[in-house]
Amino acid sequence: MVNYCCAALALLFFLPAGAGAQTGEWPALPDPPAAEGPGIRLSGPRVPPLPESEWTAAQRALAETYARNGDGGNAFATMLHAPELADVVHPFLDYTARRSTLPDRHRKLLILRTAWVAQNAYLWADHASDAVSAGFTAAELRRIAEGPEADGWTAFESALLGFVDELYRNSSVTDATWAALAAEYDELNMVDAVVTVAEFTTFSMLYNALGVQPDAGAAERLPADVPYRLEPPQREPPLTRPRIEPIDGPGLSVTRTIRRHPQVAETWGGNTEYVNRRSPRPP
Question: I want to staple 270 with a disulfide (CB 3.0 to 4.6 A). Which of 88, 154, 225, 236 is the partner?
Answer without folding.
Answer: 88
